[in-house]
Amino acid sequence: MMMRSGDNVITDIEEMIIGEQVVGYFLTKPCIVRLQNPEGTTRDKSSVGFKIKMYPWMPLSKDERIPVALDWVVSITNPVDELQTMFKKEVLKNDQVDSVDGPDSGDGD
Q1: Class level of CATH domain 2-101
Q2: Which among 20, 44, 49, 69 could disulfide-bond with 40, CB atoms 3.0 to 4.6 Å apart, if both were Cys?
Q3: What is the predicted pLDDT for the residue at 38?
Q4: How far apart are CA 37 and CA 90, in angstroms?
C-alpha cells in the first residue's frame, strides 16, 4: 500500500464500509517497508538483489488494527512473493515487530 505520505506499507487490509460505500481501510499490524540497497533494484521479480527492512507503521500505538481514511491511500498492490512471505512469517505469526531483515539481509546494516 502506498500512502499519501510516501510510506510503503505492508499489511492485511479490510475495507471500512459505511452503508454501501468504502470510506477507508482497517490495517492489521501495518509495517513500513524500506529498501536498503535501492540502486540494485530491478523490475525482475525473480531476483531480489536488495535488502528489505520492515518497521511498525505506528510504533507507539498498542492497537494492532488501525483505521485509515480512504483519501490517505494512493495505491494498493500485491507485494512480491518474498516480502509477503516475510510479512506473514515474521509479523503476523509473532507479536514482536521491532525490525525485520528481509531477503539477502547478509550480516546486518
Answers
A1: mainly beta
A2: 49
A3: 57
A4: 21
